[in-house]
Design brief:
Blueprint (H helix, E strand, L loop, with lengths): L3 H5 L2 E2 L5 E2 L8 E2 H18 L3 H4 L5 H12 L7 E3 L3 H15 L6 E5 L4 H14 L3 E5 L4 H4 L4 E7 L11 H10 L3 E5 L11 H4 L3 E4 L14 E4 L1 H4 L38 H10 L8 H22 L4 E2 L11 E5 L3 H10 L2 E2 L1 E3 L3 E5 L7 H16 L16
Parallel strand pairs: 2-13, 5-6, 5-7, 7-8, 8-9
Antiparallel strand pairs: 1-3, 4-10, 9-10, 11-12, 12-15, 14-15
Helix pairs in contact: 2-11, 4-11, 5-6, 12-14
Length: 397
């Protein structure tokens, strides 16, 4: 049985802070500082360039990828890390389009998708020409999958409301229509059980700085189903995706399997921190994590609704229909959140009116959830959010 008291002890959690924003940036794993010192002093410092071989830096993207694979229901050697999530979205979508029937012209997404994914799709489809991005309401995705769709590009958990797509059902529907699937797991990996292989997904991507606690800007990952791995076309033909990078051949030959999805030189320090952060997941049962997250989120909803009549639940009522976050609507969401943060409860805001809270059993307790709801109610009841200092908008919300 997963010991969440033990996992909590693995993180630096500032005294007096209730952290409900791990769905945006996970807290610092205590082991990260020691791992960075080791990489800087013993590897980069003492080994210098020899560390690429002596510390096996070159294999780090695949080793870390295998650790993430367990958390997203993927087989070994099907996930690789490196680069940013936007780059991985670009790679996955381009490769999916190349596998789709050539007469298909539509990439289907939904209005709950993260805007960056849609920006990437817009740019790629404009460059390719002759294709269109069709965006429908999340509830309309299934009905919109028809024989004109080349690729479905969906984020499993809506970043604003937490609404959860049925990956298995939508993947099956896409395949029945002859389409290829790309799943964004930014709000899924480390938050809910994910079953990429079982769902028969084609491609998936995700970031690692949210629930996986890899640190700000930590490297993203990409999954390619083994059945596609040896013929998926990596449109970004990077040096380290070459079959023999150090042969320095003029022509590009893609590496076998998932390695072809590597692009540039791996960010060794960042990957080492991520690798250290993943230690917290050793022994964690994802089904138990999901049950604990549902308990925490249900407690929060109950306590908030009992105290705050002016807040409206924006997330699905059914806990099995949402990810590991809860959102409420308020006309003054930004200033409410600033007042809440000033009292030690950290969540975040998504425009125009969403108060967003993440529930991460690795380090969050039931008592903290109740206390957070109590403080939120006081902020609302006393209209503390109307104070001038809470009206000034910062660059990052």
């Amino acid at each position: 049985m997963t010991d969440f008291a033990a996992t909590r002890a693995l993180f630096h959690l500032p005294e007096g802070v209730i952290y409900l924003d791990g769905n945006s940036l996970g807290p610092l794993p205590l082991v990260a500082e020691a791992r960075v010192r080791q990489v800087l002093r013993e590897q980069w410092g003492d080994q210098l360039i020899r560390a690429w071989n002596d510390s096996n830096w070159m294999a780090l993207p695949a080793r870390v990828g295998d650790r993430i694979a367990r958390l997203v229901g993927a087989p070994p050697a099907s996930v690789v890390t490196g680069d940013t999530l936007s780059i991985k979205v670009f790679q996955a979508l381009a490769a999916a389009l190349a596998l789709a029937p050539p007469d298909r012209r539509v990439v289907l997404s939904d209005s709950g998708n993260f805007p960056s994914d849609l920006y990437i799709a817009d740019g790629l489809l404009t460059a390719l020409g002759g294709r269109e991005l069709k965006v429908v309401a999340p509830e309309g995705v299934a009905d919109a999958i028809d024989e004109g769709v080349a690729v479905t590009m969906l984020t499993e958990v809506d970043y604003r409301t937490g609404r959860l797509h049925d990956m298995a059902a939508l993947t099956a529907r896409a395949h029945a229509a002859g389409a290829v699937t790309v799943w964004d797991l930014a709000h899924s990996a480390g938050a809910i059980p994910v079953h990429l292989e079982q769902a028969n997904a084609d491609f998936a991507v995700g970031c690692t700085y949210k629930y996986l606690n890899g640190g700000p800007g930590s490297p993203a990952f990409i999954y390619v189903a083994p059945r596609h791995a040896d013929h998926a076309q990596p449109i970004l033909s990077g040096w380290l995706g070459h079959a023999e990078p150090f042969a320095f051949e003029r022509a590009y030959r893609p590496a076998p399997g998932i390695e072809r999805m590597r692009v540039g030189t791996p960010p060794i320090v960042a990957l080492s921190i991520l690798n250290a952060a993943l230690d917290a997941w050793d022994g964690v049962d994802m089904a138990e994590l999901r049950a604990a997250a549902i308990r925490l989120s249900e407690t929060f909803i109950r306590e908030v609704e009992r105290r705050c009549a002016t807040l409206t639940l924006a997330s699905p009522r059914d806990p099995h229909a949402r990810g590991s976050q809860v959102s409420f609507r308020h006309d003054h969401a930004y200033s409410v959140m600033q007042a809440l943060i000033a009292r030690g409860v950290i969540g975040d805001v998504r425009a125009p009116d969403i108060l967003r809270f993440g529930f991460t059993p690795l380090y969050l307790s039931d008592a903290e959830v109740v206390q957070a709801a109590t403080i939120l109610a006081d902020v609302i009841d006393t209209r503390a959010y109307e104070a001038p200092e809470f009206q000034q908008r910062a660059a990052v919300t």
